[in-house]
Specification:
The protein is an alpha+beta fold. The protein has helices at residues 10-19, 23-33, 123-126, 132-135, 138-152, 178-187, 205-222, 229-240, 250-262, 277-290, 301-315, 364-380, 458-473, 476-481, and strands at residues 40-45, 55-61, 68-69, 74-79, 84-88, 93-98, 105-107, 111-117, 267-275, 322-324, 332-334, 341-347, 350-352, 355-356, 393-396, 416-420, 424-429, 439-452. Strands 9, 12, 13, 14, 15, 16, 17 and 18 form an 8-stranded mixed beta sheet that branches. A 4-stranded antiparallel beta sheet has the order 1-8-6-3. The chain has a 4-stranded antiparallel beta sheet with strand order 5-4-2-7, with no helix packed on it. A hairpin with a 4-residue loop joins strand 4 (74-79) and strand 5. Helix 6 packs parallel to helix 7 and helix 11 crosses helix 12. The longest helix is centred in the middle third of the chain and has 18 residues, at 205-222.
Length: 483
């Protein structure tokens, strides 16, 4: 016979030792200790998560009604304009009601769920169960809390060892990004029918496309052979002619707000190309010598480019500044000594722009390690708000996806951005002495710059671009300038 051993909290063990473990003794203790601060159904308010965020999108619920939770258990995952965040419980109790479904927009200061609280409520925790409007009026808040307590206080014997189990619920019903959910609606696919291959069963875009292809294939094979071809064309035409209106995802909302603010910035565009032949040869030698390990990750051109940009910003600090236009008074320019370079990354949920902090203090190896780490977090949707804020200059490696020349858009709060194109092999004259008439293979990359023309003139931008180009074409110069 297999016996189940239950480990009880110390407080519960002390109670049993003091009052005994008989049912009657436990019942008497529970009746004696029932109070209005215990076993009260209260709303769990979505607290202010900072940075002026007023609403978030519910990505997935980790609980269902009648599920028992303890302090710091995960309740749900939400997506704001900045990042995905997991909301945890501050109380022990039982979930009674969920106010939102996945994909719904939840308002800050409004209830997320109702919890039958079975733990003490501190003054600090009381704010999490009281809407802001009621917090503004203490008398109203106290009155409402008193009514709720009178209605929901329970004086009933309960089994001390009983645990309320949450109803079984498939993870596939919620584990998907907003972009994937938009694709599900577009292809008319139910997420419960799709087998997710992502982490923790998360449904990916490839999973949806694979399911839709298999569904369409099976439906065409099972169709009657006598059906006229015109019927198939009419079905396809009617499906293709249907318009679908979808709400913006959290990432698209963030991009909409950021790019709308960027419309007020007069962009100055400048493009140049750099010969990365020597840099690529150096990278291959270093990667071959050290190998790709956790201590020595694979060096890419991007880590060298970020360091070159940081070195150039020392000589041209205006490109790392913040330009402010107050409602009253004269515009100001704030020079920032720390180089926090924002790096645009394509993720399953859309474009994200994490920030590498203090690049001027880091080696190329440290930069390469951090790029790998934030890219992995971006693909998993685990970037925090701190990782996505505080940028002073932006680099977009659009060449990793394709394209040579781009017109990058400046982010509000910055005055410059660099777009890196795809590297390409082209014929050209040799740069070595005595071989200037020889045709050799060269690896070239386009650099596309944008600057805020209100404070940055064309000459300054050109000199900055020329400085970065020289550092990239002769990597040895970086060693001389490293601090």
């Amino acid at each position: 016979m297999i016996k189940t051993i239950r480990i009880l909290p110390l407080s519960k063990c002390l109670r049993r030792k003091a009052i005994g473990t008989t049912p009657s003794a436990l019942y008497r203790w529970q009746q004696f200790h029932t109070s209005r601060s215990l076993a009260v159904v209260k709303p769990f308010i979505l607290a202010d998560i900072g940075e002026g965020i007023k609403e978030v999108q519910i990505i997935q619920w980790f609980v269902q009604p009648e599920a028992r939770v303890e302090q710091f258990d995960k309740l749900c995952e939400v997506q704001s304009d900045k990042a995905a965040t997991e909301i945890t419980s501050r109380f022990d109790g039982v979930i009674k009601k969920l106010y939102y479904e996945p994909e719904d927009m939840a308002q800050v200061g409004k209830p997320l769920c109702d919890i039958d609280i079975q733990s003490e409520i501190t003054t600090e925790d009381e704010a999490l169960t009281t809407p802001p409007a009621q917090q503004a009026d203490p008398s109203t808040a106290v009155g409402d809390a008193q009514k709720a307590a009178d209605q929901h206080v329970r004086i009933q014997p309960t089994q001390p060892d009983s645990v309320t189990e949450a109803p079984s619920h498939s993870k596939h019903a919620s584990l998907a990004t907003p972009a994937v959910r938009g694709l599900l609606k577009e292809l008319e696919v139910r997420i419960e029918e799709v087998t997710g291959t992502g982490r923790d069963g998360r449904v990916l875009k490839d999973d949806v496309h694979r399911y839709a292809a298999a569904r369409d294939s099976s439906s065409s094979q099972s169709a009657p052979q006598s059906m006229a071809p015109a019927s198939f064309s009419s079905i396809g035409a009617s499906r293709s002619m249907q318009e679908t209106t979808l709400p913006l995802t959290a990432n698209q909302n963030a991009m909409f707000k950021s790019m709308t603010a960027s419309l007020s910035i007069p962009h100055f565009l400048y493009t140049d190309e750099a010969n990365t032949t020597r840099l690529s040869a150096l990278r291959r030698r270093l990667n071959k010598a050290e190998g790709n390990t956790s201590r020595f990750p694979k060096l890419t051109s991007l880590s060298f480019i970020l360091k070159a940009v940081s070195l150039a910003l020392h000589d041209f600090p205006l490109l790392n500044a913040r330009f402010s236009v107050p409602s009253s008074g004269s515009p100001t320019v704030t020079l920032r000594p720390q180089h926090n370079i924002s790096l645009a990354i394509s993720s399953p949920s859309g474009l994200v722009v994490p920030v590498l902090k203090a690049v001027q203090t880091k080696s190329i190896l440290e930069i390469a390690t951090e790029i790998r780490e934030i890219n992995e977090l971006a693909q998993l949707g685990k970037l925090t708000r701190e990782m996505l804020s505080g940028g002073t200059f932006t680099v977009s490696n659009i060449g990793s996806l394709g394209g040579g020349i781009v017109a990058p858009v400046i982010v509000e709060g910055q005055v410059g951005v660099l777009g890196v194109g795809r590297s390409r092999i082209v014929p050209g004259f040799s740069d070595e002495d005595g071989r200037s008439n020889e045709i050799v293979k060269k690896e070239m990359v386009n650099f596309s710059w944008s600057a805020d023309h209100r404070i940055v003139d064309g000459a300054t931008m050109a000199r900055m671009g020329e400085r970065v180009r020289k550092l990239i074409e002769e990597p040895g110069l970086m060693v001389v300038d490293l601090r």
